[in-house]
Amino acid sequence: MIHSYKYSEIHEDKPTLTELIIKNWGSSQMVSRGHIHQIDQLPGYICTLKDTRDIIGLLTYQIKDEQMEIVSLDSLKEGKGIGSNLVRLAIKKAKELDLKRIWLITSNDNWHAMSFYRKLGFTMTAVYPNAITEARKIKPEIPLINEENGIAITDEVEFSLVES
Fold this sequence. Notes:
The protein has a single domain, classed as Gcn5-related N-acetyltransferase (GNAT) (Aminopeptidase), CATH 3.40.630. It is of the alpha+beta class. The protein has helices spanning 14-25, 82-96, 111-119, 131-135, and strands at residues 5-9, 29-32, 35-38, 44-49, 55-64, 67-75, 101-107, 123-128, 156-161. The chain starts with a strand and ends with a strand.
């Protein structure tokens, strides 16, 4: 069966979103640059299957100081353009709001994310050594090691997109 996708702002069933977030992130909290985000309370976009309305993608963001931070991105069907389309929707929103910068944090072990964001035009702008080690004091659910590649998860890596 061929599915088509529907993208929309988050207005969906919050318990379903919270369940998805906890499954993918270990809790509904995200820590970036020492700040605690309650992901399930943030604005963002979802991708659903049109025929079932099952959520297969989620992006959340926070706006502060004329900047948008992409706080979380989940794509449950890799390689289908879902994550890219969700990021493009966030970029469009930032342009509509005339924001100066879009940025995000990923971890030093997440090569897939680093490559993904580079392909979308983001630039690596900073590395924060041992920031994730510190974040574990706030969110102990953060794994010590990436189980897929064996890399210790210690540092935050910042990516930015500055629109001219």
